[in-house]
């Protein structure tokens, strides 16, 4: 399975995927990393592994649709079979979803459907929940709203700050994202409506 990874920043989930591949835990290859942010550390992480890395600035395009067409072209050029969003800070539009139907997945740092959107770990901490976690899900046109593949639960401790909670959630992200990609690669995920069955 050839992966196209879209990342806007730090790229630690990209790193976890590359490490899982290197360790033989994930039968896949990162074919290309694309960022909407030329400064993204994710691009350097890819280049350090000899993986093609491209920055595509939305501002350089006429419209979101034009921008996404360029992203899709890049993904197709590298023959990506699955698109992994890894800290990609944009809502995926119809252009990309039509090009990769049920082939775009995302990791979100909360137990969806609780706390979608930005700063989910801080949202959870401020709300005062006892448990939060992370979710890998298929991407649809909404905000963090597609069918759920895997989740991991992380307790919120009394001494936690939003940052310490985010750190413990991140450890679980790095565990379940490669695992979800491996399930996809093995053809073990079946979407039926909102439900994803693992066979
Ligand atoms: C992660 O917390 C992920 O769940 C969210 O954005 C963050 C990206 O971190 N979607 P990184 O760039 O993978 O380090």
From TrEMBL:
Site (Raises pKa of active site His): 144
Underlying gene: purN
Amino-acid positions noted as binding N(1)-(5-phospho-beta-D-ribosyl)glycinamide in the UniProt annotation, renumbered to this chain: 11-13
Protein's name in the database: Phosphoribosylglycinamide formyltransferase
EC number: 2.1.2.2
Catalyzed reactions per annotation: N(1)-(5-phospho-beta-D-ribosyl)glycinamide + (6R)-10-formyltetrahydrofolate = N(2)-formyl-N(1)-(5-phospho-beta-D-ribosyl)glycinamide + (6S)-5,6,7,8-tetrahydrofolate + H(+)
Family the UniProt entry places it in: Belongs to the GART family.
Signal peptide: none
